[in-house]
Amino acid sequence: MLTNREPIHIVWFKRDLRLEDHEPLQLALQQKERVLCVFIFEQLLLEDPHYSQRHWDFIKESIRDLNQQLEVYNTKVLTINSDIISACNLISNTFQIKTVYSHQETGILVTFDRDKSFKRYCKNNLITWKESIHNGVVRGLINRETWFENWNTIMAEPLITFSAASSDFLDLETIKTLETQCKVTNLETKKEKPFQPGGTSIGLKYLNSFLKDRHKNYMFHISKPDKSRKSCSRLSPYIAWGNISVRQVYQSTKNAQTSTSHKKQLSAFRSRLRWQAHFIQKFEMEHIMESSSVNKGYHKLKKNISDEYQKAWREGQTGFPLVDASMRCLNETGYVNFRMRAMLVSFFTHILWQPWQDASKHLSQQFLDFEPGIHFPQLQMQAGETGINNLRIYNPIKNSLEHDPDGVFIKFWVPELRALDLPFVHEPYLMTTLDQQFNNFELGVHYPIPIVDLKLKRKRASDVLWNMKKNSTVRSESLRILQKHTLNNRSNLLKNDED
C-alpha cells in the first residue's frame, strides 16, 4: 500500500506569505510531481510570549489572500494547527513526501531548535529539505566582509515570477480529504480591527500609494509621530510577514525614482531597506541577543526591577505625555514610527532604569511588524548595551516640543490633556495649584504625576553607561563585534539613520 503513494513536494510557508518572488515555491513547481502548499500554526509559537492575537490575525488574513489568488488553480494552502514533523507524518500516510521547500527563517530560538529537529527528521525519513535565502540574509556567515556587495547583487537579480498550472498542485478535493485527518485552522478574524490588514493585495496598495504620492514628505516627516503615519511607507508588516519581498520593494522604489522629482526621499527609503537587512543579518549571526546583551561586558549591569514602573510604561500612564501617547497608540494600532519606538525603549531602560529584556515581550506583542532580527538588536542598541553605538538617552520633553509642537499626536492619544493650554499639554506637571483649579484639572487624578525625576534619572543613566564603556570586557567585546560585523561602505548603509 505505502509503495503506491503519490510522490509530492511540500512548500512550507512561514514568514513568506506571497506567491511572487518566492524561490521555494517556484523550485517546487519546476518538479514533475504535484505540490502542496502548507502553513502550520505551531503550538510552540502560539504559546510563545513574543506573539499575540494581532499577529495570528494578520497571518490568517494573508493566507486568505493567498487562497483567493490560488483559487484559479483549484488549490489552496493547507492550514493546520500542528507542528511540522506531525504534519509531515500525517501527510505521509497518504503521499510520499519527496522534498520540502522553504525559506531560511531568522526567527527566535524556538524556531531555530525546531529547524534542527526537522533537519534530523528529514534525514531519517529520506526527505530532502531545500532552504532558500530570504531577503539577502545568509545563515552561517563568519564575517561581513562582502555582505554589502552580495546583498546588492541579490537585490538586483530579476524577480521570480509566479508561473503555474492547476495540474501543478494538489486539488481542492484532495486537500479537503487531508483536512479531515487533522486540526484545521479557522481563518476567520474579527472584521472590525484597528490594525493594517494582512495580505499581498493590501501590501501592494500601500507600496503603490507610497511610491505614487506619500513618499514626497518621507524624510521631512519621518520623526513626526503623527505625520509619519502617512508619509512613511507603512510596509513594515508586509515585509515582516513576507507578503512582499524586500527585493520587490527595492526594485519598485528604484524604478519609481526615475519618474519622481523627490528622488532623495526614495533614496533614503531604499537605504533603510539595507539598514533593515543589516540588523537581521547581525541577529542571525548573534543568536544570544534574544536573551542577553551581545556585548558580554554589559552582563554585569544590574537593575532593580520595578513592577510599578513597568506597569505604568505598558499602559501609557507615566506622566510624560509623548511617552504615554506613543505607548497608547502602539497598543491600539500596532504601529508608531522609529523615533517613538526608540524613545519608548530609551525611557524604559534609561529613565526607568529597567532591563531591556523586560520590555521585549510587551513590545513584540504590540508591534504588528514584529521582526526578531530587528527587534532584539534595536532593543540593545537603544538600551546602550552594544558598546559600538552612540549612547542615546532620548528626552521625551525635547522630542515632544520638536516633533509634536502643536500637540496633535498627544491630544489624540491622551485625551485627558486636550483642554489644556499647549505648554501644559507637553508638560502638565508644570501646572500650579491655581492653573489646575482654573482648568478644572487635578494632577494625580486626571493625569499621572511623573513617576520619576527626568533630569536626575537621565544623569544617572548617562554616568553609569559612559563609565561602563571604559570597562575592559566592554572594550574587547566592542572590538570583536566590530570585526565580525564591519561592512564595506558602512557609512552608506547607515547614513540616513535617524538620531
UniProtKB/TrEMBL annotation:
Name of one Pfam family that matches: FAD_binding_7
Molecular function in Gene Ontology: deoxyribodipyrimidine photo-lyase activity; DNA binding; FAD binding
Nucleotide-binding recorded as keyword: no
Domain Photolyase/cryptochrome alpha/beta: from-to ranges: 7-137
UniProt-annotated binding residues for FAD: 218, 269
PANTHER family per the UniProt record, alphabetical: CRYPTOCHROME, CRYPTOCHROME CIRCADIAN CLOCK 5 ISOFORM X1
Protein name: Deoxyribodipyrimidine photo-lyase
Organism this protein belongs to: Bizionia myxarmorum
Source taxonomy: Bacteria, Pseudomonadati, Bacteroidota, Flavobacteriia, Flavobacteriales
